[in-house]
Amino acid sequence: MMPAAKYEPVIGLEVHVQLATNTKIFCGCPTGFGAPPNTNVCPVCLGLPGALPVLNRSAVEMAIETALALNCRVNPFSRLARKNYFYPDLPKGYQISQYDQPIAEHGAVEIEVNGERKRIGVTRAHMEDDAGKSIHDGFRDSDKYTYVDLNRSGTPLIEIVSEPDMRGSDEAYAYMTVLKQVLQFAGVSTCDMEKGHLRCDANVSVRLRGAEKFGTKVEVKNLNSFRFMKLAIDYEIERQVSLIESGGAVVQETRLFNPDSGETASMRSKEHAHDYRYFPEPDLVPIRVSAAWLDEVRARMPELPAERKKRFLDLYGLREYDADVLTQSRDLADYFETAAKNSPDPKATANWVMGDLLGALKAEGKEIGQSPISPERLGELVTLIAKGELSGKLGKDIFPKMLATGDSPRVIMEREGLQQISDSGALDKIVDDVIAANAKQVEQYKSGKTAVIGFLVGQVMKASRGQANPAMVNELFRAKLG
Ligand code: ADP
Ligand code: ZN
Ligand code: MG
């Protein structure tokens, strides 16, 4: 047996999510990204002595929404706590977090890996404020400075701690994918990893297959992309297995992943672990979530992916696979739904979105939100085809032109003279010409080989540059040839 197969990896994730509030968690400063350094700050988020925090109500509501989206129990009473440590970008000298009484506990999400569904427990979700940002600049000796930007200081975060329920990096990847999808649908975060709105620490251990006890875990901190997370976990599993196989032992420590080398390296050992000296935050009252408030927040929760998928199946009659694809992101689901509402044929709309549109966007490296074709216009295209004003073939010709110009399909159709010919007088003439020019096939048809009608219709389509209405042409042939 290969060494790796003897062992089973165990993974638990701690995920930090930036809540999408307009203002910070304990002051009124804006949370916007990209402002000049140290401009979105005030005495509270600068940690000046005597400044007092005031809890942002909408941050609490988003935390409640997060909890509901993750099937957690929302605690009616929870408390903020000081987590003390020194760091240059932490001007208060402590982070305001939650410790023994978090706002939410006992949740779960469902993941699917290789067609198998699995439940991953969510231990807890707690609120906290973010620190500032250290910017390490300069490469020459004379220019080695670290700058501190406190714009991010005091931004509301929610930390989601999973149970050690994952058994491989693919399950961790699937868990992160579901988390991101659910939180985006709930509208509590953009989950934009490039902006650091979603960050993850991975706890990894290995044990002999069949063993009851968990092995010693290592925490890999600050993973800022799904891909790096997967690479870091895989590297850690391999490292721990070879360590144990060669007679060594895993030590509990914090490690960092280096994307350049693809390896993890020790940051600090357990002996050097922080003693955070947690204690209840004296400047803030406890958070009380009444049943009425909880109901109110629950009532205005946006639809989550599972409900949305069910509605796509029931209301639009989509296939399971299509409903899955179209609910991958809220933007995509919204796009499809607007397009479908503007067309009489939801299934055809789904095909256009999933096939032509997503294919074209992917080729250009664009997201659905950057589509040059608005959902209303795509719905219009499907409508024109459904009503027979455009043939399917002409629809395919017009689509790239919509993509290039963003124009409505009707405008393009009229500009380029691409309307379908549904005037029976005009079609009559072309059909007669085709009958005259193809005596052999006409004979075959009359002698019972009716399949040859496909060829004859094809000749009419060709003669009309694809503009003849195929259903009408079929009708005409049947009427004329008996
Ligand atoms: P700590 O006290 O070191 O912070 P916790 O028990 O709070 O540890 O767990 C932190 C995270 O580590 C959780 O996501 C949890 O699921 C995960 N975890 C705990 N034990 C293990 C283990 N042996 N292997 C992998 N992950 C673990
Ligand atoms: Zn402030
Ligand atoms: Mg912990």
In short:
Helix content is 40%, strand content 21%. By secondary structure, it is of the alpha+beta class. The protein folds into 3 domains: 3-293, no CATH class; 305-415, no CATH class; 424-481, Arc Repressor Mutant, subunit A (Orthogonal Bundle).
Give an account of the 3D structure:
The structure is a single chain. By secondary structure, the chain is α+β, with helices and mostly antiparallel strands. It folds into 3 domains: 3-293, no CATH class; 305-415, no CATH class; 424-481, Arc Repressor Mutant, subunit A, CATH 1.10.10.410. The protein has 16 helices and 16 strands. The protein has helices spanning 3-6, 57-69, 169-186, 226-245, 291-299, 305-316, 320-326, 330-341, 346-363, 375-386, 392-405, 409-415, 424-437, 439-446, 453-463, 470-481, and strands at residues 7-18, 73-74, 77-78, 81-84, 94-97, 104-113, 116-129, 133-137, 145-149, 156-162, 198-208, 218-223, 253-258, 263-269, 279-280, 287-288. The strands form 4 sheets. The protein has a 9-stranded mixed β-sheet. A 3-stranded antiparallel β-sheet has the order 5-4-15, with no helix packed on it. The protein has a two-stranded antiparallel sheet with strand order 3-16. Strand 6 and strand 7 form a beta hairpin. Helix 8 crosses helix 10 (375-386). The radius of gyration is 30 Å and the shape is elongated. The protein starts with a helix and ends with a helix. The model has no long low-confidence stretch (mean pLDDT 92). The structure holds adenosine-5'-diphosphate, zinc ion and magnesium ion (MG). Adenosine-5'-diphosphate (ADP) binds next to strand 1, strand 10 and strand 11.
